[in-house]
Amino acid sequence: MPGDANILAAIPELPSIHLPRRNVLDEIDRAPAVPLTLVTGFSGAGKSTAVAAWARGRPRVAWLSLDAADRNPEVFWRSVVSMVGQRLDETLAKASAELSRPRTSFHGVAVALAHDLERVREPLDIVLDGIHVVDERVHRSLAVLVPRLPWSVRVVGTSRCGPSRALSALRSVNCLRVLDPSVLRFSITETRELLLLHDIVLSSQDLALLDESADGWVAGIGFAVRLLKKQSDPAVALRMFAEVDGTTARYFNEAVLCDIPAALRRFLRDTSVLEVLDTARCVALTGPAGASLLENAVNASLVATPPGDEEPPRHHRLLGAHLRNRLRTGDPERATRMHRKAGEACAAQADVDGAVMHYSAAGRDDLAFRTVIQYAVEWCGQGESEQLLRWAGLLERLERRWHPTHAVDLAIVLLLAGSDRAHTYLQAAEPFIDQLPQDSRVRFHVAASLLASQSGDIVQALAEAAAARASGAPMDHPLFKLFTLHLARMHVWRDDLAAAAAETARLRQNAQTTVERALYLGVEAWVQAVAGDLRQSSQDAATAAQIFEDMAGEPSSASADWMRAVGLVALERHDLARAEQFLIGSLDLTLGRRRTYSLTTLVALAQLANAAGEVDEAWRWWEKARGLLQHHETNVLRDLVGGLEIRFALSGGEVTRAAALLPTIAVDSRRAGLEARVALARGDSAAARTALVRMPHRTPRERLLASMFELRTWSLEGGESVAGRLTALVRSASVDGWVRPFHEEMPELQVLLPDALDDQLPSDYRKALQRVVSGSERDSGAAVDPPHVYEELSRRELKVLDLLASDLNQGEIARRLFVSINTVKTQIRSIHRKLGVSSREEAVRVARHLRLL
């Protein structure tokens, strides 16, 4: 019976202050039909205490505490047979007889003991405490005994190591169950309860600190209790504990490290600098033997193994700190070498955080900065601005040993992340520019050009770009490839599309990674969309979109170019819903970080609203674009916004106002097109012809507009075959799918357009033009909304509302619409407010009632 003095005599006493752990006892009790349960864990993990607490609730227990003497199989089996015989109060005749004979193996002893135990009808638990100390021959003979045990007999063992090879084989016949070391770790709740039993109360912050330092290690928590009782200030005690106080250090030296082979001890010392113990890093630090030594350390529970196989092992926190202390104080040069090797291993695995930490500890800040720059470009390509900002924060902490080159590199990382703090570091480095090595001078000019372009100072950006190239920028480096992308964008903003196309084509041909190819295709698609090569732009944007989708990431700033291209193409094809979706998505990814990108997208959104007949909305977008214009010093961008104002004035019939604004347009080629529009609006064919002479014909867009204005002028002059020329123009425009210009640029010829839509046109294109002619501003498949509701819900909100009726969650809706999840949440709140509902279900129900879905 539980509590019988004779039974309990061999079971160790529990500590005077003991915390019952029902969850651990239940784990030991689970699967009683399995004849061997092995409780494993680090030294001091509480294995013996847990099993002793469990054993005190069992009816009949034979407990054997093993020590070095039991390593001998002869001694071990005599002890087992004697202890079991005492608990059964009988002599185990067959086993005793087998032990009295000379032998070379103990297979027969195990079989004989199994025969003796067949007579046992009441439950018997045999506890072997410390099974890791015995000989491999004992493990082999135990593997013979366990499968032969009757249902009434069960063996429970404790071990610092995992099961030996012989015992592991028992798993295949369902005769072994191993309790993971994580079962014994104290939770933070259990730590708090144990402290309360010792009359110790800690704040939540101090308790969390203790939990982090102890890592659930039972003996460690006991050492912490002693320190807390000695020290009046818990913070002091916990700091001493985290730094490994003398008592804990002695325990590690005397109870852990002294009992393991020297090679394994050196392995633990050298790898103590590592945060995680994956095989590649261990081999990098300790040589080819590192893989097997790591396996030995894991099997001996000398390192912590997170549950499951998802994460690699790591050092026990306190033991790792102790080993690092010994390495740092005993052999500081070796500690530096280990950190240097660890930095190289982390960099090779793209673990930038780890590389920075180790290089810094090794005093090699230059390598830390080099590693961040190496990976920052790639992560920028994936739109990981938050990651870049975090790396920048790591580098900023190295300020104590700064060099101007570090300031330049940090500025580049911040620029790639879209942070305005970059200019601070460039200013710090500028006085030393003549003292910098050549590659650092090149990077300085690159950083200055990036900063100027992102803030809208295109003139300064191009000047710095010229200085960078004059200094010998190595254009095969990922950083300078990204820089060339910025150059391509700047050429677009300067209206030099040929130069922009040349830059992107060169980059695309030399792309070395999938991310690079997607980035280059995205920018090239945008350049083509601006130039009016709608078909090629669509193809390149689709390829870039597929690459980013395959990367399975959230929409990021890296996707902004191809999304803007899709939006521009959709706008020109008068697919207004699609245009809005992608232009807004692009804007969400760049607004507040890249002013020039935002400005050009805002202009496109103003054109979109105007095409939809939403005049007030168009002017609101235009006002936002003008608000960003103060950051720009290029005539092209100023003319872009100013030209839009003139076109809006013409759309509203304000010809005099439009004419008065013409002198504000600085670039003659752009002013020529606007003068032609004003002249045609006035019916002045002569002035229109004068302007047509100066209009450029470099791009498909420019050639199409020139042809349209020529036809309008010809019509004003009373020329013949206007309808035939219009039909030819429509056929030519159908190749790329142009629709919007026929809606906006040829008002007086709208009446002739239906006759130009012959059967030779692609059916989709003909339908799109027919919708323009009929005045329909929305896709033919869109529902006709009740006027009062339709006015309240914007097209974006209608699109979100449509997806709310699906099974998509908010994150999936954001990815579908290529916007941030915060934008989706804002739209949903607006929908709820406008429909007078408070939930998604209500919104869908009301929308169906109003026939919005």
UniProtKB/TrEMBL annotation:
UniProt keywords, alphabetically: DNA-binding, Transcription, Transcription regulation
Pfam families tied to this protein: GerE, WHD_MalT
HTH luxR-type domain ranges (all copies): 786-851
The keyword Transcription regulation is assigned to this record: yes
GO MF entry, a single one: DNA binding
Source species, domain of life: Bacteria
Any one GO biological process: regulation of DNA-templated transcription
CDD domains named among the record's database cross-references: LuxR_C_like
SMART domains in alphabetical order: HTH_LUXR (SM00421)
PANTHER family: DNA-BINDING TRANSCRIPTIONAL ACTIVATOR DEVR_DOSR
Name this polypeptide is given: LuxR C-terminal-related transcriptional regulator
